[in-house]
Amino acid sequence: MNVAMICKALSDGNRLQIVMMLIDGEKCGCKLLETFHITQPTLSHHMKILCECGLVNDRKEGKWHHYSLNCETLKSFKDFIGGLSCACEKGCDGM
Q1: What is the signed CA dihedral for 32, 68, 6, 18, rounded to 10 degrees?
Q2: DSSP state letters, 14-77
Q3: Alpha-carbon distance 33 to 90, whole Å?
Q4: Distance between CA 93 and CA 57 in Å, rounded?
Q5: Closest Cα partner for 10 from 62, 77, 86, 64?
Q6: Angle at 71 between CA 29 and CA 56, to 5 degrees
Q7: Model pTM?
Q8: In this structure, how many other beta carbons lie within 10 angstroms of the beta carbon of residue 69?
């Protein structure tokens, strides 16, 4: 898992929204296009980034791609984030 690539992928608002949409299951690219009102090449660009970092799986059926979350990568990323802590967790001002 490449944490930097995942953080970079999620730094874009559209890609973050796409990940949130995929939480409840696989979605066809056509549904994502309807939701975002973006061009197909723009969607392809976003999906390529999400797939390359491992957060999203891609399955082709006919002319459409179907996307779903890669639960293993998401769990590893969640565990990484959950393991981050401040050295002064109990006693830092402003935390």
Answers
A1: 20
A2: HHHHHHHHHTTS-EEHHHHHHHHT--HHHHHHHHHHHHHTTSEEEEEETTEEEEEE-HHHHHHH
A3: 46
A4: 42
A5: 77
A6: 30
A7: 0.85
A8: 21
3-state secondary structure of 3: helix
**Tokens read off for 90:** 């109990």
Spell out the per-residue pLDDT of the chain, length 95, in tens.
799 999 999 999 999 999 999 999 999 999 999 998 889 999 999 999 999 999 999 999 999 899 999 999 999 999 999 999 887 766 566 55
33 torsion bin: left (phi>0), alpha (psi -120 to 50), beta (else): alpha
The two three-digit tokens of residue 59, written as one number? 């399955």
